[in-house]
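Now for one protein, fold included:
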Amino acid sequence: MNTNDKEKIKKSRRNSGAITLRDVAKLAGVAPITASRAVNTPGQVSPDVLKKVQDAIHRTGYVPNRVAGGLASSRSRLIAAVVPSIVVSVFVETIETLNNTLFEAGYQLMLGQTGYSAEREEALLEAIIGRRPDGIFLTGIMQSSKGRTRLLASGIPVVETWDLTPTPIDMLIGFSHSDIGREVANFLMAKGRRRFALVHAGDERASRRAASFKNTVAQRGFREIFVDNVGASRSLKSGREALSRILSQTPDVDAIFCSSDLLAMGVLTEAMARGIKVPRQLSIVGFGDVPYVADMVPTLTTVHINGSDIGRKAAGFLVARAQGLAVDKPIVDVGFAIVQRDSA
């Protein structure tokens, strides 16, 4: 903004120093209501007026106050997403697709990370609901009764994802973690594996996969399996340390199911370092099918979830509801697939 522009608008500036729509109107030589129409409903003004306002916006750096606009129209054009993590995460593909699909529909994504902390999730939800977005995307099922009550009371469209339940808050797109645990166990048993172990992180969904895996093995009459819960730690190092603990307790283990690809990579790395032949001596299965596991040596067998499909469907659900439209099938099971590669 040049000196002349500053002189034209300096008398109308608010105490905060922020450029306002009134400043833009003054610089463009139009009435504030005309500038407002040019910003919010450009089809209602002439091309000449629209150009003047757009030029003024460009020169001043003005950004429309979408909060104020949302109060007037009851629309924020914001969708809030709550995810545990996006660092080396199975959720990245879902969030990227969600963001891109929403952007194409004229909505913006506001992202919050819980770090797998129930307390942080509760604080995030309170902040999000207070800002009244047009929709809320949750990773997993809302376990907290307090959280469910708040979300129901808010009236904001909600889509829960990456899980299944017959009683969602509103809409649901996911798959069964118990089914995954059972099918991975059956897969490994079909490969002739008989001495099993589990490595899983301390979150509820991973625990359900582990419990189902363990029960399926027990039902077939095999010995009780060793379970290594790495807690909040989800790193390659955690996987390496987990295999060391497993071998100290069950040195004849021949199959390990990990709750994430990153943990599985750690187990695989430690196995290679110890000279254990994979998969002849030890089969390893991960979860998530993150992009790089197909390029490892050996490549990692894992459970594939169509994260893009979840993100795309969730965006469609939320946009439809934000526009007052009904969703015909509010619960969708996207399923999963075991991708067999070199490690099993």
